[in-house]
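User: Could you check the structure of this?
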Amino acid sequence: MKITKDMTIGEVIRQFPKSVEVLMGFGMGCVGCPSAQAETIGEAAQVHGLNIDELLEALNKGI
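Assistant: Sure, the predicted structure tokens are below.
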């Protein structure tokens, strides 16, 4: 399975625990906050000003 921009942060963390390290490395310290359960990877990347393609590549390599 591959991580996509439409998956929620909570979903990604539950399915791929190693993704927490990658997300934190990109400055996304909100991995444990309640909004992460409903916010998608794409939405979070936009809010944090991150390149979604770079983030997805790193996440999929990191899992």
